[in-house]
Amino acid sequence: MRNTKLFIGRKVRDLREANRLTQAAFAERLGISTSYLNQIENNQRSVSAAVLLALAETFRIDIADFSSGESDRLMSALLEAVSDPLFEPARPSLQEMKLVAQNAPSFAHALITAHQAYRRNSEQLASFDDTLGRSAAIEPTPYEEVRDFFHFVDNYIHDLDLAAEDLAAKLGIPDRDPSAALPAYLEKRHRIRIERTSAGETVLRRFDTERRVLFLDPFSPVSTRSFQAAFQIGAIEMATVIDALTEDAGFHSAEAREICRIGLCNYFAGALMMPYEALLASARELRHDLELLAMRFGASIEQVAHRLSTLQRPGRKGVPIFFARIDRAGNITKRHSAAKLQFARFGAACPLWNVHQAFEQPGRIIRQLAETPDGARYLCLATEIAKGGGGFRAPQRRYAIAVGCEVTHAGDFVYADDMDLTNRAGFDPIGISCRICERANCAQRAVPPLKRRLVVDRNLRGAVPYGLD
User: Fold this and answer.
1) Taken in order 140, 141, 144, 145, is the CA torsion positive or negative?
2) What is the model's pLDDT at position 135?
3) Which fold, 9-66?
4) How far apart (Å, rounded) are the C-alpha atoms in residues 111 and 77?
5) Lowest mean pLDDT among 106-110, 167-171, 188-192, 369-373
6) Is the N end or the C end of the chain the one with fewer CB atoms within 10 Å?
7) Rounded Cα distance, 283 and 287, in Å
8) 294-297, Cβ contacts within 8 angstroms, sequence gap of 24 or more
9) Other beta carbons within 10 Å of 21
10) How many CB atoms lie within 10 A of CB 374?
């Protein structure tokens, strides 16, 4: 154990609530006083080694679960923010930022939000945006707000997850094919029948509230139609819970609240098709073979990969993995990481990351051993996915998805079986984003890092036209 103080109040509270225990009952099982537990949950006191061991032994959890997670994600966002030259005169030390992330997370979130507003104003000023100075200009976009909401709750929504798991058990999922179980349930329970969308419609799902008809695109994959049916169930049955979650999130706009409602319905749909304990057990049994998991649950590879990143239930966590979806321009359109690796909030993904190669080898799962500048090493998997349908002239959207874990967990993945995980030379050097990457000699660098001073010599030309001091 390190000698640093550990403030994990939220995680302790989440664990207690997941086990449906009062503070008095939880404290009794740990052998501590209720007042001490209350202080721990409110981050007024740190957790001692004895209490940490009692948590691990009593609730059968990995102590490592308490050393990462929200503080890592918050630290990553904080580090990226303070790397801006704006903070050069008084940039806090790494230890100071760790203290803020652990002990004053609300202040850290406020600083990150302020920096986002500064960036947006700077970008609008540079482009002579005529909206400069309006109040909306300094607010985050609705999608940014919702993205951060899911990011900082560890991409795990406990109430929705439990409700979806209970319903899946009643419907016999995954033993029963969701493509049959979900439409039958909609019709029996809610008197909603499913019909095909009309020829020429370009929607995946359309719900006619008056006729009680759910129209689905007949040309979309079966897994997509199942997901949309599950979405509709969540929208109806979990409306009260979802409304409460969106209100508690404190979004700045009605658009953000509505986007979040859709995201929460999507979360419920994934949890219904792939119930928590069933997926956790299958992932261990099949060693995270994405194709086999997709077949077992009647889901797509993307749905499986995304759902695996949500296995963060207190006391029953899966392997901490990262998941991202990237378009051909390198923009990250979905992201979550339960691992130490955190994605950049601004800019494109590192060009040395194997996810870009997926577009060159469609249909294959590409593997990579990679190392980030902080010395952490990862098993990275990437594959291309295409979304289309509707005939020859219908447009196809192409993405690549990335999944991976720290190399210490690579043995849980079938993809690592013939890879040499001990040879450090076999790990490709990757970064998070060029703007915050410290690698000075990277031939693929797109822009210089914000924290380094440029050294320009017109008589010297290397891989990039400048050096770094």
Assistant:
1) positive
2) 42
3) 434 Repressor (Amino-terminal Domain) (1.10.260)
4) 10
5) 106-110
6) C
7) 5
8) 294/223, 296/174, 297/174, 297/178, 297/273
9) 15
10) 9
**What CA–CA distances, in Å, run from 290 to 231, 281, 285, 301, 304?**
22, 14, 12, 6, 7
Strands 205-208 and 213-216 come out as antiparallel
Calculate the dihedral angle through the C-alpha atoms of 456, 457, 463, 468, rounding to the nearest 10 degrees. Answer: -40
Residue limits of CATH 1.10.260.40 in the chain: 9-66
Q: Strand 377-387 to strand 397-406: parallel, antiparallel, or no bridges (unpaired)?
A: antiparallel
Integer angstrom CA distances of residue 189 from 28, 167, 193, 207, 235: 42, 12, 11, 16, 14
Tens digits of per-residue pLDDT, 241-250? Answer: 999 999 999 8
Span of 56-65, 124-133, 257-266, 451-460 with lowest mean pLDDT: 124-133
pTM for this entry: 0.73
Query: Which of these, 342, 356, 366, lies nearest to 433 by C-alpha position?
Result: 342
- pLDDT, averaged across the chain: 85
Asked whether the predicted pLDDT for residue 133 surpasses 70, the reply is: no
The contacts of residue 25 (CB under 8 Å, 6+ apart) are: none
For residues 301, 303, 305, 307, the Cα torsion angle rounded to the nearest 10 degrees is -150
In tens, the pLDDT along 179-224 reads 999 999 999 999 999 999 988 788 899 999 999 999 999 989 999 9
Instruction: Read off the pLDDT of each residue in 399-427 and give the average, rounded to a whole number.
Output: 94
How many alpha carbons lie under 13 Å from residue 41 in its C-beta half-sphere? 18
CATH top-level class of 319-438: alpha beta
Task: Give the torsion sign (CA, 248, 253, 258, 264).
Answer: negative
DSSP sequence for 271-316: HHHS-HHHHHHHHHHTTT-HHHHHHHHT--HHHHHHHHTT---TTS
DSSP state of 407: G
Question: Of 334 and 440, which is predicted with more confidence?
Answer: 334
pLDDT: which is higher, 68 or 333: 333
d(CA 201, CA 459): 61
At 300, the amino acid letter reads S
Q: Where are the alpha helices (DSSP H) in 172-253?
A: 178-190, 222-237, 239-248
195: region left, alpha or beta (phi > 0 left; psi from -120 to 50 alpha): beta
Domain with CATH 3.30.450 in the chain: 319-438
